[in-house]
Design goal:
By secondary structure, the protein is an all-alpha fold. It has one domain. It is 86% helix and 0% strand. The model has no long low-confidence stretch (mean pLDDT 91). It is elongated and about 55 Å long.
Length: 178
């Protein structure tokens, strides 16, 4: 095996980890809405520890290996590289900005809630429409990046993938709000 093979393997492992973390996050957001007791809420929130570990490690794997592949093999003159990097950075910003405060509000309300039925304050935090609407977006954005990387699309093709991801994300958001 060559250094390229190991670097590509690290990149793929990072992408798999990213999808695992994103899937867990979606599961937590939607299972919290289905929870009937504070005990169930606490059980689902424990997955946050796994997400908090897997997500940043995966992002570092993707970033380091992606930069290594870019610098040694591909160069910066490819739309799919630049846009995929941009999407990774965007996810890294949007997650803490959009999900961070809302998940923190759920944690605070869950800690304050007595064991038993879910009180109104916790129910309100869990039912946040922005959190619910945003949940599928990171997965769609990551899928768009994978599509661009696998197909090695030019600027037009990459732009079309991003536009499609945004349209599908908007449709999900509108359907989920309703």
């Amino acid at each position: 095996m060559t250094l390229y093979s190991y670097t590509l393997l690290l990149h793929i492992v990072g992408v798999i980890g990213l999808f695992i973390a994103i899937s867990l996050e979606v599961a937590v957001v939607f299972r919290l809405r289905a929870a009937k007791t504070t005990t169930q809420v606490h059980e689902w929130l424990t997955l946050g520890h796994v997400i908090d570990l897997v997500l940043p490690v995966s992002a570092v794997f993707i970033l380091i290996s992606g930069l290594a592949l870019t610098l040694t093999v591909w160069g910066w003159k490819h739309a799919w590289i630049e846009l995929s990097l941009g999407l990774l950075v965007l996810l890294g910003i949007l997650g803490p900005v959009i999900n961070g405060p809302r998940m923190k509000a759920i944690h605070v309300a869950a800690q304050a809630a007595p064991v038993g039925e879910i009180p109104p304050a916790l129910k309100k935090a869990i039912s946040n429409s922005v959190l619910r609407a945003y949940a599928p977006i990171p997965g769609l954005v990551a899928l768009g990046a994978v599509i661009m990387m696998v197909l090695k699309l030019d600027w037009l093709g990459s732009g079309m993938v991003i536009a499609l991801v945004l349209i599908v994300g908007l449709i999900f958001a509108l359907v989920r709000k309703g």
